[in-house]
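Q: I have two molecules that I believe assemble together. Could you output structure tokens for the complex as a whole instead of separate predictions?
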Amino acid sequence: MRILGIEVKRSTALVLGALIAVVMVGMLFWGPSTKSSTAWNRQWTTLAEWIRFMLAFSWPLALGAGALQGLRDRRSGVEELFGSTPRPRAQRVGWTLGAVAVGVVVAYAVVFAVGAVQVVSATDYFHWGWLPAALVGALALVGVAWLGVGLGRLVPSPLTPPVLAVAGLALTSLGVGRPGDGLPWTALLPTLPFPRSVFAAVPGPVSAVQAVWFVGIALTGFLLVALRRRWLGALPVLVAAAVAVPLLPATAEEAVKADPVAAELICVEQLCLTRAHEHERAALTGPAREVLRLMAKLPSPPTSVREVGLEERGERDLRLPESTDAVWVDLDEFTYFRRTPLTADQVTTYWLAGAGTRTCYGDHIPRTVTREVAARTVMTGWLTGRLEPLPVYRLWLGEETDGLVADAWEHLRALPEPEQAARVQAAREVQAACSGDPLTTLTGGAL
Amino acid sequence: MTRWLVLHARSRLVPASAAAVVGGVVGLVALAPPHGSPQLAAFGAAIGVAAVATGLGSHDLELDRTAAFGWPPRRAAHLLLGGTLVLALLLVAGRVADPIATDAFLLRDVVGLGGLVALGALLFGPRAAWALPVGWTGVTLVVPRGDEHWLSRLLTWPVQPPGTTSATVTAVVLGCTGLLAYSWFGCRR
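A: Yes, here they are, computed for all two components at once.
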């Protein structure tokens, strides 16, 4: 143990560990990982997946720093001296590699601890499903650092570390794209695509295959450092590749599986939230009650507020029909999760939009969205008694919709009261089912 | 004088570094998309200065100290020549193939990242100096460069459009501090 302590101090382990921890925590706090429900500090799965994503930087860094460590013996001119001692080489280098592994793993654990402290206070949904993905990340870091030491010993030039680091960065940048890009080969990278929904997670078998692959890399690194006959070192990585490659996920659906437990709805007092977002119940009960109270004006009002738990976001062109007996809400649709939380009034305003219906469009929004926005604006205005622009689209659709809204509002207000309620109810049904043009229904075909 | 130059170049592994820079730039140009890409151009500059950095310090600092001449001007000349070579290579690559970025962009990035690598040599020693420019360019892959926040602007200076004042200032400050500090103090022991 004394030797390990000395090696930790004398090797690159401390500097590497500090760099990894600083770079990863800094990027997690400043990158895109702080936004929406999939933020790294809101759920256990997203914590693990974001940290794996940020390996895009620390993995090449570990490779380069490992190579730097591998240069040490040759550049200090002590190889022959050490070679003349009877002690097995593996015993001596084991401590050095151990020190590097300790530095890397401690840094990784620190990053996790920084996230975990925040996750504990942000969600009530705890499970162990995130652990395999997290452990594979630690394994990948240790493996690549050891591989770096091995390659540094193999090619002891001062240019080796930067060349390896740049090559590593080029490799990991391939994995930064959308999920499913370049599969199955991107599954061999330490990075995961960033999480797109809290209701999906990396399945255990994928993590197991990746673990095999990174153990192979680590063993290769170890053998490259420890063996006199270095070509034997290539064996573990070849065996690992032979085992892992046929088992790699080939499609995005295999690489990310839905998490039905996280998406399970729990209903208390007409408010149904997914298990993952149960923590928000205290903040959302008031708005839910208020929305249902205002909606009671309709001939057949909804009886509950229910969260939509989608395992994939922004892929479909058109959302599926939803029943009208509930107000369906997607917390990310109006970016509920922000640094400064929304007030209860703001949440109510968002939920009331379109008389409690969601927009029909996903990623691809056609020009005709102005008609939908106008109809939803008028429906909301009828419920609250005040005609106000919808909060979401105001910035980029305001002027186009204003005219439509004013006309439709005039038209609706001119009708007798029961007829108004029936029209809004009909428009709400059209909008919930995404089956036509709600503005036509609302104005009886006049607009 | 020529003899001194040749010996200096050999002791600092200049031929191998130069070969690495040329290889890196050629590979980069081969990978570049038709209209260039700021990230790729920043990477080119980072690879170049990282290779230059391996020659910023000698194998034996004690031996260097026994020399009967002052090191600061020689260190400054080494760094400046290395930076010029990297810039020239990137510019020539832009003339031969499709330009990966404008000349002003490349000049700014080589100046800033060159200063950064010199600071790296001062702090971590010449063999680990590459970590700073390579790490910083890696960061620009994830932080959105269009973000209005000042910290995002600062972090993404290597990929900001050429006219951006904050990026130019950052690059010049990094370049000057790096050059002065490295020339004066030399590498970490």
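A: One point stands out. The mean pLDDT of chain A is 88.
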